[in-house]
Amino acid sequence: MTREVRTVVYDTDLQLEAYQFEGIMQKFPNHFHDYYVIGFIEQGKRMLVCNNEEYLLNSGDVTIFNPQDPHACEQIDGRTLDYRCINIQPEIMQKLVREITGQADLPRFTPHVLYQSELALPLHELHQMILEGESDFHKEELLLFLLEQLLREYSNTEPPAPIQELSTEIKLICDYIESHYTESITLNQLSELTGISKYHLLRVFTRQKGISPYRYLETLRISQAKRLLEQGQLPIEVAALTGFSDQSHFTNFFKKLIGLTPKQYRRIFNHEAGNKPIPGSVS
User: Fold this and answer.
1) Which InterPro entries does the record cross-reference, listed alphabetically (predicted)?
2) Rounded to whole angstroms, what are the CA distances from 98 to 17, 78, 137, 237?
3) What phi, psi does 48 have (nearest 5°)?
4) What is the pLDDT of residue 32?
5) CATH code at position 242
6) pLDDT of 246
């Protein structure tokens, strides 16, 4: 048996999440987040696919995902993964960028992988300070210096021109899913909405968005579920409020995308429970 430890902390000073996964084998299916994710591989090797580009990850590599970047990853050598990351909501990123540059633009970071990057060291130090609950200003200093280098070397703070403008039909589908994600949505409905055959709809949507319509729907549901869990609502209530057929389906899919069960994620924001490692085991 290989022991897993999944540690997640919400830092109230910096207003961001810090994740640490140790000894995991979990495969993460194609999905996206509505926040920035900046992380690094401590130990292990993974195949990452992000925006239809493949990357081979090793220890010391830094990964950066922008909001809405579709990505998936899995082990390729049969060994476990140790990984750390910080998650930054767009409104917090905007405040940090304004502090550093004086501009309020949201950055778009490229590339998605910085191989054997020197930034893994300050990112590790910052992450460890968050896990240990440090409260002095050195923590904020580290974050600002880290982001300053990322902004200077790996971002364009001007909104980039889209590689491909979404078609009217795909925009219509996105709007519909975003407005009806709590309901049962069928492929027939989306086909009738746009006048596109189901097969053609799937191919065009996936090509333009980088993710299938069903994964798009489930990812939106999980994003809203996180917000409700952060507010203290029970998982069984959240499952019903976000359109999942039952709590088991909700729990399984939540863990696939987030790496924690809804109950474990809710515990992060429960001050009585505290921010403690979440142990588990896998065979």
Assistant:
1) AraC-bd, AraC_XylS_family_regulators, Homeodomain-like_sf, HTH-like, HTH_AraC, RmlC-like_jellyroll, Tscrpt_reg_AraC-type_HTH
2) 20, 43, 18, 38
3) -110, 135
4) 93
5) 1.10.10.60
6) 84
Q: Which two tokens stand for residue 41?
A: 């591989």
Separation of alpha carbons 85 and 28, rounded Å = 15
CB-facing half-sphere around the CA of 86: CA atoms within 13 A = 25
- In this prediction, residue 35 carries a pLDDT of 95
Contact (Cβ atoms closer than 8 angstroms) between residue 57 and residue 41: yes
Please name the residue that has the structure tokens 């189901």: 198
Residue 139 lies in a domain: yes
Q: What is the CA radius of gyration of the chain?
A: 19
CATH code of residue 30: 2.60.120.10
* Within a domain: 283: no
Q: What integer pLDDT is reported at residue 2 of this predicted model? A: 64
Distance between CA atoms of residues 277 and 132, nearest Å? 11
- Identify whether residues 148 and 55 lie together within a single domain: yes
| CA dist., res. 35 & res. 190, Å (int) | 27
Residue 64 belongs to domain spanning:
2-156
The whole-number mean pLDDT for each consecutive block of 10 residues of the chain, a chain of 283 residues, reads 83 94 92 95 95 94 96 90 96 93 90 96 95 88 93 74 70 94 90 89 89 90 92 92 89 88 85 45 31
Q: Are 108 and 181 contained in the same domain?
A: no
CA-to-CA dists, residue 84 to 41, 64, 270, angstroms: 7, 12, 22
The pTM score is: 0.79
